[in-house]
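Progress report, Aim 2. The chain analyzed during this reporting quarter is listed below.
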Amino acid sequence: MCLLGFLSLLIAIGYGVLVRQELVGTTKLGLVSKTALFFAEIPANLHSILTGEGQTNDLRVKEKRRHLKVKRFKNKSGFQGSPLEREIYLLLARYDGNEERSIVELIDLRTFEIIKIWKPDIDKINDLADTSLPEHQHLKRDKHSKRYLMTHPFLTEDGGLIFQHSSPLVRIDENSKLVWQNDTDQFHHSLEQDHEGNFWVPTHAFPYQLDKKHVGLKHGNFLDDAITKVSPNGEVLFQKSVSNILLENNMKLFDRRWIHDPIHLNDIQPVLSDGPYWKQGDLFLSLPLKSSVILYRPSTNKIIWMGRDHTSSQHDVNILDDHRISIFNNNNIAYFKKNEVDDHSEIVIYNFKTDEYSKYLDKSLKQNDVRSFSQSRGKITNNNDLFIEEQNYGRLLFFNKDGSLQWEYINRAKDDYVYALNWSRILFTDVDINKVKKILELEDKK
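Predicted structure tokens for the chain:
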């Protein structure tokens, strides 16, 4: 009996190793580890089928903070506070817990009225993706309509949207019908338009652009984050590995902590006009795992500037004027076995003219307990107001330039859970407002 018990223990350990290798290991064991994972997932899959649970539970945000037993937003749902007086719109990208799907809503912030809703057929879109490509095989089980998030949607001139969710890049029309999709790579995180009308999107490039001596050839060995320029018609015009950008500019790339994902590119912000510190066509890149923001010039393949160690796990770089940028600093500190925000997240401003860093409306962010250890957005408007998406907690906030909170939005469903937001946009420029007016004209004609 002792021998049998010992052998059973060895078998259990071996089985666990096979499952772990298939899930997170860099070396897969082919059919053996795939079979082990299949059997390990049978109980969870049966429970999900029989009860309907497990499909969207991880899209619910954890409303309770560590060490606190009460909910952060108890009894709060939807918009709280006062509408704006001036014309600004919200492109609200969120997971609708009532409908169990991702939607995008265009909202007039003067009334909180929903002007338009986009609900594309996600299953149909995914069915068109080439899942024979290694970078899209995850779509077979993890990107069905109940789990897909329409991330950082861009409003087009004709009333449609362009979006992705670690997936092919997709464009739909004003009626939520598919116009095109590009599945050459796995597109992720931000989507921004440059001065020529093209779009810059982070991608995981595969086959890898790095020398195989660094990362090998097998898909899954490495996340080769690349800057990718896509035309309004969905054609890839340019692509460059960020790892190669660093190496070709004599900067170190690899260390023992982040050998698989040393970059984690999460934002590309195109420079739209010349200034004393940058040129039209330059790109600001956010590299959170290096606690760095860089200014890169594709025309010469040169890094013009790098800001390091003033942010941690930062997102969302924005150009404020001809000499300042703002950065949403998640302020995430990695502890043993966990990540946690150090007090609160911040809006950090860097002034190229004075070479100084400062914080914007920091007391207001602290007082309102703004914290998001990953994801999230922060945008200072042309009126010096501040829009925040606290993605980790499913909350939006709008601060006036004096620091007072004008309104907040909680993405709560009827089941009392708060669900994820997907990188919403605040629309306040003349270009954005003209787009909205065209949409209103189209809606009136229907």
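The longest strand covers residues 178-187. Confidence is low (pLDDT under 50) at residues 47-55, 65-69. These observations will guide the mutagenesis work planned for the next reporting period.
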